[in-house]
Design a protein that fits this description.
Oligomer: heterodimer
CATH class of the largest domain in chain A: Alpha Beta
Number of strands of chain B: 0
Shape of chain B: globular
Radius of gyration of chain B: 23 Å
Number of strands of chain A: 9
Helix content of chain A: 40-55%
CATH superfamily of the largest domain in chain A: Periplasmic binding protein-like II
CATH architecture of the largest domain in chain B: Orthogonal Bundle
CATH architecture of the largest domain in chain A: 3-Layer(aba) Sandwich
Strand content of chain A: 15-25%
Order of helices and strands of chain B: HHHHHHHHHHHHH
Helix content of chain B: over 70%
CATH topology of the largest domain in chain B: MetI-like fold
Largest sheet of chain B: none
Chain lengths: ~280, ~270
């Protein structure tokens, strides 16, 4: 009998030891990897419109600093801001609008002054199916046109609203009416510019307002065409990057790299402007 | 005898302690986030203001209307499907029975992409539909399509199991007494399977209400038209945390009500059985 009890107690102790052991291991492995990460890993949170140039820029950055691994999280600028403000680990934040960085500054999460590194015009892309029907900005108010915009919380969404207001100002139809007609044609407010691109390229929507850099992408050019937006009414998105607390040499290196000619050249190749 | 008992009890004791520890850890893990949701919403102090804002109300209204339409369609189509499968020996139906549950396992985002490829304007069927003047993506219909796609299997599964569990002799008896199949189904089969069916409805309804991935992909995000509560939460997370908290709390409360409803139904059922 006592043997039996002992046996069970042993097993019980075994379980406890196992659990304590596991907790220790997980604790150790966490702190260890965190330490390593902070030394040679650079985490960048970048607006989705930066996807292509940033992938390339990070590659050339890693060539220059071979011991560093750059990891990039792409999403709508606003979503990234929410993630950072809720404690997501990020070293650098690149937003399509300075206002998100300012919000983070107010929260005391930004380490450096934001640096301007690129600007991007807006483009109106139309799925090829509607060639001939939608040729100019005024056509956006026609009935039976499906427009997809980004939500106004995302920079491109706010820029799109400005652009629509500008278009309405120059249109022959009364301003309010024209804006209403356009907004009546909006079928969805997406959470990032890439969703707008995807739905317009797929033809689920007829028209999407995106960045000039998106409109230049190969798969976008293939299935869509652009409506010309006069320079005078177009809206310019300005991209800023800042380092998030706590900052390190790594983040400074990347921010300086962003302003070098090779990086600017990559941005220009992808339809951004760097002046 | 007494010694024997002691042996049986003692080994149980340590595992009791361990069991309690594991349960506490688990309850803490699940309970803390839910409790945090309630505390944070309450401390935001904006409960009613936000809840009765137009955007929130529209999301709640849209969610309830679309999920009710979905569940009605699911019951109308799912009941005969479940009944026929449960009463048939056909091999094809046996295979169908396995695959009918696929949407439960399938990631909702895959369901959304698949629906876009089928019913989208450039989709296999969507192109033809559009020529007939019917467009599905970005409409409330798309929301309902997505909900039915992902949540119908929960009802059909529950209904099929219930139909399979009842004594077939009772149905046969009713038929030999000269009652029509329809009469038998309504007066024998349905009352006997009522608990299983209503549980299935509750589960399916809950899944419809929580549908997010397929809706976002296939129906888009438009206030009053396709922005259901989960999509409203997503949008609000990026603009106004309070709205997101309040909508989350509403969904949490609905979930609790559905859960208690299911529990009530099944305990009532087991009482009547006893």
């Amino acid at each position: 009998m006592t043997n039996l009890i002992l046996k069970f107690q042993k097993r019980y102790i075994g379980y406890m030891v196992l659990i304590i052991f596991m907790i220790n291991i997980s604790g150790l492995s966490c702190s260890q990897s965190d330490h390593e990460k902070s030394q040679n890993e650079l985490i960048i949170f970048a607006a989705s419109s930066l996807m292509d140039p940033y992938t390339q820029i990070s590659n050339s950055f890693m060539k220059k600093y071979p011991h560093i691994e750059v990891k990039i999280n792409y999403a709508g600028s606003q979503k990234l801001m929410t993630q950072i403000s809720h404690g997501a680990k990020s070293d650098i934040y690149a937003s399509a609008d300075i206002s998100q960085i300012q919000t983070l500054q107010e929260l005391g999460l930004v380490h450096s002054d934001p640096i301007f590194f690129a600007s991007n015009k807006l483009s109106m892309i139309v799925n090829n199916r509607r060639i001939g029907e939608i040729q100019q900005l005024n056509d956006l108010a026609k009935p039976n046109i499906k427009i997809v915009l980004a939500h106004s919380s995302v920079p491109i969404g706010a820029y799109s609203q400005k652009l629509i207001a500008n278009i309405a100002n120059t249109s022959d139809i009364s301003i309010n009416n024209f804006e209403n007609l356009i907004y009546n044609n909006v079928v969805s407010y997406e959470d990032s510019v890439k969703s707008v691109v995807m739905k317009t390229v797929l033809g689920e929507a007829d028209v999407g307002i995106v960045y000039a850099s998106d409109a230049k992408l190969k798969h976008v050019v293939k299935d869509t065409y652009q409506i010309k937006i006069p320079e005078t009414i177009n809206v310019m998105a300005e991209y800023f990057a800042a380092s998030i607390h706590p900052s390190s040499n790594l983040t400074d290196n990347f921010l300086s790299f962003l302003q070098t000619e090779p990086a600017r050249e990559i941005l220009r190749q992808h339809g951004f402007e760097t002046e | 005898m007494i010694k024997g008992k002691a042996i049986q009890q003692n080994p149980a004791k340590p595992s009791h302690a361990l069991g309690a520890l594991i349960i506490i850890v688990y309850v803490f893990f699940i309970g803390l986030p839910l409790l945090a949701l309630i505390i944070k919403t309450a401390s935001s102090g904006s409960l009613l203001n936000v809840l009765f804002s137009s955007t929130t109300l529209q999301a709640i209204k849209l969610s309830i209307i679309t999920s009710l339409i979905s569940i009605i369609i699911i019951v109308i189509i799912g009941t005969p499907v479940a009944y026929i499968i449960s009463r048939s020996d056909s091999k094809i139906l046996k295979i169908l029975d396995i695959f009918i549950e696929l949407p439960i396992i399938l990631p909702p985002i895959v369901a959304g992409v698949a629906m876009l490829m089928a019913f989208g304007r450039q989709g296999i069927l969507g192109g033809t539909l559009e020529q007939l003047g019917i467009t599905i993506p970005f409409t409330t219909t798309a929301v309902i399509f997505a909900q039915i796609f992902v949540s119908a299997p929960f009802y059909i599964r529950s209904a099929r199991i219930s139909f399979g569990a009842i004594d077939k002799d009772l149905e046969d008896l009713s038929r030999t007494l000269g009652k029509s199949p329809w009469h038998t189904f309504w007066n024998i089969t349905i009352p006997l399977t009522w608990t299983g069916l209503t549980t299935g409805i509750a589960l399916s309804w809950a899944r419809s209400l929580s549908e997010f991935g397929a809706t976002l992909m296939f129906a888009g995000n438009m206030i009053g038209e396709t922005q259901t509560m989960p999509l409203g939460i997503m949008t609000a997370m990026e603009t106004d945390l309070n709205t997101a908290l309040n909508l989350s709390l509403v969904l949490l409360m609905i979930s609790v009500i559905i859960l208690l409803g299911i529990h009530f139904l099944s305990s009532k059922f087991s009482r009547t059985r006893v």
